[in-house]
Amino acid sequence: VVDASAEDPVARVQALSGRGGVDFAFEVVGTQKTIEQALNATHRGGTCVVVGVSPAGTRVSVDPGMLLQQRVLTGSSFGAGHQRTDVPMLIDLYMSGKYKLDELISRRLPLTELNHAFDLMVRGEVKRSVIVYE
């Protein structure tokens, strides 16, 4: 486990990989810092996939030397899927019981317990909390 609040996540990932970085890094937060860290955690020829949604106007600094090392920075929204066809298909799979999303939900909490839900997530006590609007 890499705890970015307690150590340099890039140095730790590079050390754990034993190769100076990973083949693929998936960034899921969307901040300038985390995108840059994810890219820096890849090795020569590695790919950083940005999944996190960044606030408008977010800019990322890239060392041109990384491009010469064939590192790739790319983004993904719904993967290679097509929302118009895939979302209805996923809903059908869920409704028919073939796509078991409910098993991924650890807790359902009312909006009034939003801060508690966040605390549970930070402590790693839940896989996924769902806020229920009543």
Question: Could you walk me through the main structural features you see in this protein, from its secondary elements to its overall organization?
Answer:
The chain folds into two domains: 67 residues, NAD(P)-binding Rossmann-like Domain (Rossmann fold, 3-Layer(aba) Sandwich); 50 residues, no CATH class. The radius of gyration is 18 Å and the shape is globular. Helix content is 34%, strand content 20%. The longest helix is centred in the middle third of the chain and has 13 residues. 12% of the residues are buried. It is α/β, with parallel strands linked by helices. The mean pLDDT is 91. The two termini are 36 Å apart. It contains five helices and five strands, in the order H-E-H-E-H-E-H-E-H-E. The strands form two sheets. The protein has a three-stranded parallel beta sheet with strand order 1-2-3.
Classify the fold: give the CATH topology of the largest domain.
Rossmann fold
CATH superfamily of the largest domain: NAD(P)-binding Rossmann-like Domain
End-to-end span in angstroms? 36 Å
* Portion in beta strands: 15-25%
Shape: globular
Give the mean pLDDT: 91
Helix content range of the residues, please? 25-40%
Number of domains: 2
Q: SSE order, as H and E?
A: HEHEHEHEHE
Rg calculated over all Cα atoms: 18 Å
As residue ranges, the low-confidence spans are none
Number of helices: 5
State the name of the first-level CATH class of the largest domain: Alpha Beta
